[in-house]
Specification:
274 residues; alpha+beta; 434 Repressor (Amino-terminal Domain); five-stranded antiparallel β-sheet; four-stranded antiparallel β-sheet; 9 strands; 19% strand; elongated
């Protein structure tokens, strides 16, 4: 499988097209087209999601297979490869210690038996003497009534330990679409100007009216820019993501199939169009 950039450039030159000709139709800026043909993927501010979106659109325009473009891109950036971890050396097991033979003379065993027997006899004699002297008949005095009442009062007065229940608020997960891709719905609460880009292609630019939601879909990335983010709520794959930003703030937000992605701020401040 050859170089991706050469593959795209050769297909474009075979159609006798310049980068400016491609930009006029695909709406992909020439510097990004040139980055795709030279393999300078770091020039894409939207990262891999923007690279894939531009590749699909560029390959389709040239009459090439978008799936083959994705495969060539994955091969170049090394997607799906895992580095082999170095094997951890196993320390050698210590050799078993040599068995030590313990021998004892026969007379030592009989001596131990005699000593144990004498100790048992001495213990029995001590018990018999203590009983005769009345020492074992001593008992601890029974607790007084006052002590029992005090112990009962203390037991009643001591509060039982209570358990503390801590409420845990679950963080919602991003709603990944079953079929892939990403769907963006903008729900304006007032008249607000927005620009929407899907997979690098500008699909809308103008005013949104209150209570008139609009929806767009993309395979790799959808980006929305506005000059008044407080006037519109973004809904991605059916889940509200809140207002785009603060009132009067110029901002841009983007989403891919697996969640929100960082996008650069608008190069030119978005202004409402009359």
């Amino acid at each position: 499988m050859g170089n991706l950039g050469n593959w795209l450039r050769e297909a474009r030159e075979a159609k006798d097209l310049s980068l400016q000709d491609v930009e006029a139709v695909t709406r992909i800026r020439t510097r990004y087209l040139e980055a795709l043909e030279t393999g300078d993927y770091q020039a894409m501010p939207g990262g891999p999601a923007q690279v894939r979106g531009f590749l699909r659109r560029y390959a389709s325009f040239l009459g090439l297979s978008p799936e083959e473009a994705m495969a060539r891109y994955g091969q170049e950036v090394g997607e799906g490869k895992e580095e082999a971890l170095p094997a951890t050396p196993v320390p050698p097991r210590p050799a078993p210690a040599a068995d030590i033979e313990i021998t004892s003379a026969p007379w030592r065993g009989w001596t131990a038996v005699v000593i144990v027997g004498l100790l048992i006899l001495a213990g029995l004699a001590g018990v018999w003497w203590a009983r005769g002297a009345g020492l074992l008949a001593h008992r601890e005095p029974a607790p007084t009534v006052e002590a029992s009442v005090a112990a009962t009062t203390l037991a009643v007065a001591s509060p039982a330990p209570t358990s503390t229940v801590v409420a845990v608020t679950a963080t919602p997960t991003f709603p990944v679409a079953a079929g892939g891709g990403v769907t963006l719905t903008l729900e304006p609460s007032e008249h607000v100007w927005v620009r929407v880009t899907a997979d690098g292609f500008a699909v809308f630019e103008g005013m949104l009216a209150p209570d008139n939601p609009q929806t767009w879909t993309a395979e790799e990335m959808v980006v929305v820019e506005t000059g008044n983010g407080a006037g519109v709520v973004a809904v991605v794959n059916g889940q509200p993501q809140g207002t785009l930003c603060s009132r009067g703030e110029v901002c841009a937000r983007g989403w891919g199939p697996t969640g929100e992605i960082a996008v650069p701020p608008p190069a030119v401040p978005a202004t409402p169009q009359g």
